């Protein structure tokens, strides 16, 4: 797994926005690089407005990261289903992302370095 996934502090400050709302900003985000996929920014829960995230029934499994819980983003103007995920108890090699949340970028969800 050492060559498959790399986790490091994301350089700079990052934000996530959806439905006209800023869901969070963080200077403590992590960047996860997984072989064959674009890098993903993970935000610490403490830097997110978790009130915008509603846990769903959805779940997924990655053999390299573990079981993910999914969240919809709920704002005044919209609900974006299954737009975020979290590995609350990830496998040992990627324990750094525990209690962090990543977002599925789309025309409704923007993750960017600010």
Write the layout of secondary structure elements.
Blueprint: E1 5-9, E2 14-18, E3 21-26, E4 30-34, E5 40-44, E6 53-62, E7 66-74, E8 79-86, E9 100-103, E10 109-113
InterPro entries: DUF427, DUF427_sf
Domain DUF427: 15-104
Protein name: DUF427 domain-containing protein
What overall geometry do the principal axes of the alpha carbons give?
globular
Largest sheet: 7 strands, antiparallel
Q: How many discrete structural domains?
A: 1
State the strand order across the main sheet.
Answer: 1-4-5-9-8-7-6
What structural category characterises the helix and strand content? mainly beta
**What is the succession of H and E elements?**
EEEEEEEEEE
Q: Any idea what the CATH architecture is?
A: Beta Complex
Work out the helix count.
0
Low-confidence stretches: none
Question: CATH homologous superfamily?
Answer: Domain of unknown function (DUF427)
What's the total count of β strands? 10
From the 3D structure, determine the CATH topology.
Answer: Metal Binding Protein, Guanine Nucleotide Exchange Factor, Chain A
CATH class equals Mainly Beta
Helix content: under 10%
């Amino acid at each position: 797994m050492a060559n498959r996934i790399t986790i490091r502090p994301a350089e700079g400050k990052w934000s996530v926005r959806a439905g006209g709302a800023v869901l969070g900003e963080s200077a403590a985000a992590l960047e996860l690089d997984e072989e064959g996929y674009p890098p993903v920014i993970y935000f610490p829960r403490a830097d997110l407005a978790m009130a915008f995230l509603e846990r769903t029934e959805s779940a997924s499994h990655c053999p390299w990261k573990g079981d993910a819980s999914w969240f919809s983003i709920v704002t005044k103007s919209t609900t974006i289903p299954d737009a975020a995920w979290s590995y609350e108890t990830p496998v040992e090699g990627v324990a750094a992302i525990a209690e962090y949340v990543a977002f599925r970028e789309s025309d409704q969800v923007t993750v960017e370095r600010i």
